[in-house]
Specification:
Layout lengths: L9 E5 L4 H9 L5 E6 L6 E2 L5 H11 L3 E4 L13 H20 L5 E6 L22 H15 L4 E6 L2 E2 L6 H11 L2 E5 L3 E2 L2 E2 H17 L4 H4 L1 E4 L6 E2 H10 L6 E5 L19 H7 L6 H12 L1
Helix pairs in contact: 1-6, 2-3, 3-4
This protein binds NADP nicotinamide-adenine-dinucleotide phosphate.
Length: about 300
């Protein structure tokens, strides 16, 4: 008997050293040959998304069958004073990737943020709700969405939020470090959102990409923006309590308001995203944020 000769797709993963990118290296592996790219060393290719020649060279040389872009300018507060570079990476680069992939119909999965919204709703945001970013980072990410969609590429944009995980710079790891160092911590309680485990987001990405590669969906119909976060909602204060609860440390947590913790970039007060569309389109159900947190903590402890 002869085995079927199906070509293994080349999956280009940009931003393979970020917190989501690191998880994607693992979750994309069963779908094909993962070719990694990053601005740092330690990946197959070096790319600087702020440099258009570097981006087009990457696509030319890797000849991918699909692209996942997990790279971004993510320093939310710094972006307030570094608008030009944030725009190049978050807005220009996705538009350019779209333009480079459009003619071949190669699918691209890209990430955006809850920060595209103003946070003045009281019900979870749906994909077509009006946007209104409060800070430069959110504005550049929104522009990136627009440019990628306008390019006409087969793009799926996953808007996510409050990412944490075993690697990178995130709230969970910061809290765990500070619980050990401090007797008392003041945490914002008037910002509400949905903690999202980087591993879970990477798994969802792979499920979506699998459907795009298998070709059982009409790509023209399914391309667009989707919300993907942990299900449910909480505040930073209650998120910190849930992390602390698992540790048995003696740190006292005090709830404060955003005005007591001023930061250069304004954040939305209510940033809960409605995950219904990804379920209806791709059959992907998002687990409750507490369930994912437990699984992540089990791995860390
Ligand atoms: N983190 C969150 O809570 C959150 C929330 C909503 C949406 N998102 C979105 O989710 C996606 C993944 O975020 P993440 O948390 O995994 O981000 P991350 O950990 O900051 O990773 C982003 C990666 O992009 C790389 N990068 C930065 N500038 C680059 C450039 N000019 N060229 C190439 N690579 C560059 C970074 O490298 P260096 O580290 O060397 O700079 C880093 O490895 C992003 O699109 C982000 O906007 C994140």
């Amino acid at each position: 008997m002869t085995a079927p000769t199906t070509k293994s797709p080349r999956l280009l993963l940009i931003g393979a050293n970020g917190q989501v990118g690191w998880e994607l290296r693992r979750t994309l592996a069963p779908l094909g040959r993962v070719v990694t790219a990053s601005i740092e060393d330690g990946t197959d290719y070096r790319v600087d998304l702020a440099d258009s020649e570097s981006v087009s060279r990457l696509i030319r040389e890797t000849r991918p069958d699909a692209v996942v872009n997990a790279a971004a300018y993510t320093a939310v507060d710094k972006a307030e004073t570094e608008k030009v570079i944030a725009e190049r990476i978050n807005a220009d680069a996705p538009g350019m990737l779209g333009a480079l992939l459009k003619d071949s119909g190669i699918p691209i999965i890209h990430y955006s943020t809850d920060f595209v919204f103003a946070g003045d709703q009281s019900l979870p945001y749906r994909e077509d709700d009006p946007t209104g970013p409060l800070n430069v980072y959110g504005a550049t990410k929104l522009e990136g969405e627009r440019r990628l969609l306008a390019s006409g590429a087969n793009a799926v944009i996953l808007r996510t939020a409050w990412i944490y995980g075993a690697r990178g710079s995130n709230f969970l790891l910061t809290m765990r470090r500070m619980f050990a160092e401090r007797d008392e911590l003041r945490i914002v309680r008037d910002q509400v959102g949905s903690p999202t485990w980087s591993r879970m987001l990477a798994e969802v990405t792979s499920l979506v990409l699998h459907r795009l590669l298998v070709g059982d969906l009409d790509v023209e119909r399914v391309k667009g923006v989707y919300h993907v976060t942990g299900a449910g909602q909480t505040s930073w204060y209650d998120f910190a309590c849930a992390i602390l609860g698992s540790r048995g440390e003696q740190c006292r947590l005090l709830p404060i308001t955003s005005s007591e913790y001023p930061a250069p970039a304004k954040r939305p007060a209510y940033a809960v995203l409605d995950n219904t569309k990804i379920w209806e389109t791709f059959g992907v159900q998002l687990p409750d944020w507490r369930q994912s947190l437990r699984l992540c903590l089990e791995e860390l402890d």
